[in-house]
Amino acid sequence: MSELYAVRRGRLRDRCAAAGSAASLVSRPANVRYLAGGAPPGAVLLLGPDEDVLICPGTPGPDPAEGRPDDQLRITVLPEPGGDTVVAAARAAAAAGAESLAVEETHLTVARHRALGSVAPRLRLGDLSGAVEQLRIVKDEEEIASLRIAAEITDQALGELLESILVGRTERHLALELERRLVDHGADGTAFPTSVATGPNAGLGRHRPSDRRVEEGDFLSVCLGANYRGYRCEIGRTFVIGTTPADWQIELYEVVFAAQRAGREALVPGAEYREVDRAARHVLAAAGHGEGLAPKTGHGVGLEIEEDPQLAPAAMGKLDACVPVTVEPGVHLPGRGGVRIDDTLVVRPDADGGPELLTITTKELLAL
What residues have CB less than 8 Å from 231, skipping those under 6 apart? Predict the structure, then answer.
């Protein structure tokens, strides 16, 4: 693994050198973990002209959720509690003779950016401009393997819930049970706050679980995901509780299912991000549900639950192979209910079988 992280850091170093920066400072936690293997709270990574250093506010602990720092990295712990690792990194870069330092401007506060200039006034500051995020878009097979396990854990947790009695239980209780089951099956934690929406609440986008109890005839919409070794997946499913679905529920479900299938089938290397969005959005619009749709059909996943690429109407760029994304169209009817179907997939060429579906819980409209 050390060689893998060294290769990643080498790619960033080459980009920075081409832009005229002799050193770079990575402070965004997901980016630190991507390049260093681990990201203890508050740690930053300095890629210097001579060596790379992980600067931590305290001694890194054994928490698996933080990852394990690369053995080949030098680790420096601040001598005094309360110190700023970003400031320490700037001092170290200046002491090493660097004349310029590229930083993640969008992650640093104004105060920390000013502090950099005050402690190292001769250091010319530049912006990494999302360079690490761009490197993270295409995943290697080690990363995809972690995503695959995260998806398996998520499918297990959801499958077990579907076998239990649901009527009379609250949305909040179901969400807590799902999160407990994720950890029981090996997740380091949740990928994001679990969503459970029932009845009219399923007609609200981004609903947070409430004390509403599940009733017969409800739509039950759930969205959850596991965090495994830092990698996060997402699944969303909609079911009907306790009875044969009503005609309007079947009709709405079939429309969203068709839109989700269209989006999945559009996931081929070379496809434009916005074309994937258009494929799903067109199906919903043609059925009369064009208003009030979510601003995007899906997004990338990895060390963060939402990262590039964005599958949205105005998104620029094309898909590559080995890019994991979600496809998650939905229609919400305020006061009635709604349907969301959400999968995590990996873009693969047709020669390799096409998109690899990681989340495999059934998409059949079940009556639970």
Answer: 143, 146, 147, 150, 301, 302, 303
